[in-house]
Amino acid sequence: MNSAANPQSQDIYRIIAQEATMAILVVKPDGHLLYANQLAHDLFEFPFNANVSVYQVAQLFPGEGGDRRVKTLNGDILELQGLIQEILVKKLNGQNFFAMLGIKHVEIDGEKLLLLMFHDVTIQKKLQREITEKQSAIHQAYQELLQQNKQLKDLDLAKNRFIAMTTHELRTPLSAIVASAEILKLKLYDTPEQQDEFIAMIYTQGQHMLDLVNDILDFAKIQANRMDYYIEHRDLKALAKSEVDGLLPMAEAANVSMKFIEPTFETQCYYDELRMRQIAANIINNAIKYNRPGGQVEVYFVDSDAAVELHVKDTGPGIADGDQEKVFNEFETLGKVANHSKGTGLGMPISRRMIRAMGGEVFLKSTLGAGSEFWVTVPKCKVLAEENYRSRPDSTDDLAA
């Protein structure tokens, strides 16, 4: 700046500074302010008609203790010269804002002065941060959408397998029933014993079809949130013993021994008897069905603080770590028809849904080649809404049971 400028020129410079679109501060060598234009008065919120010379530039330093990744105005920065993007500056009222800062060292009439030019970019920075967050959210949503799309494709494929498997499962007993009934109708049997065999075949295959249909109906009811629960305080030991006794013929036919270990503690807990029988029967049935000839199924109890645990341990082939969660996933356990055991593959998914609805949980521990162990936890105390605790009016009314 030319120190010999006439007064009229100085007035022009002052007017230009006052009308500038950036806040301008001039700082003396001792750190006191020499000049502030109108925008600087507004930006830093100087008191009305304040004498800026009583203020020091250090009063605009935010100080330490904030985010170390954020540049803050300080004495070292004022030694620089040029344009600095996004620096944190403090107003006289203590509030901070982000500014684009221009620093220029000048000399006027032999006095070295510091020229500071501020442009408030707080709103722009906030908008940029929000845009970045939105972009991140959109990217995450897109990735989730891709994952969901993959899951839907996998589920669609699994459902197609399920339909094929269910059709196969239903057709097999139905064919046996129709063939046996046709033989009886045409009286193509030779002896009363043969007649009894065909009658037994119709009954056995009919029961198998009923089990298949029950699984499908139960799953449909659970999916539609139409499954009713009547939870009462009952003895779990008596229920488990009853299911073990009922499955003994199946175990003997499969050359699998059954061991029921009597608990040494009370096994009173809260559950729906009809649904718990389905769960216990399914787990014990699987332990027999997926065991090996000469194997063993062990049923025992564990007492925990909040629940009674019913454990079923088998000596079957076990389940690989990567496949264990699939046991509880709808349509995931079907596999190939040639390697499939009788059933829809919905037993464990239905069991997990039902035990969770009663406030419990089902767990699995398995070692490939060394057997598996399933156990359910049944609450000792009421853990659900009070309306769930009621007596079942008539269990024979439930056609899906």
Report on this structure.
The protein has 3 domains: 7-120, Beta-Lactamase, CATH 3.30.450; 128-221, Helix Hairpins, CATH 1.10.287; 227-397, Heat Shock Protein 90, CATH 3.30.565. Strands 2-1-5-4-3 form a 5-stranded antiparallel beta sheet. Strands 7-9-10-12-11 form a 5-stranded mixed beta sheet. It has a two-stranded antiparallel ribbon with strand order 6-8. A hairpin with a 3-residue loop joins strand 11 (361-367) and strand 12. It contains 9 helices and 12 strands. It is α+β, with helices and mostly antiparallel strands and 401 residues long. 41% of the residues lie in helices and 21% in strands.
List its traits:
3 domains, Helix Hairpins, 5-stranded antiparallel β-sheet, 401 residues, 5-stranded mixed β-sheet, Beta-Lactamase, alpha+beta, disordered C terminus, 21% strand, Heat Shock Protein 90
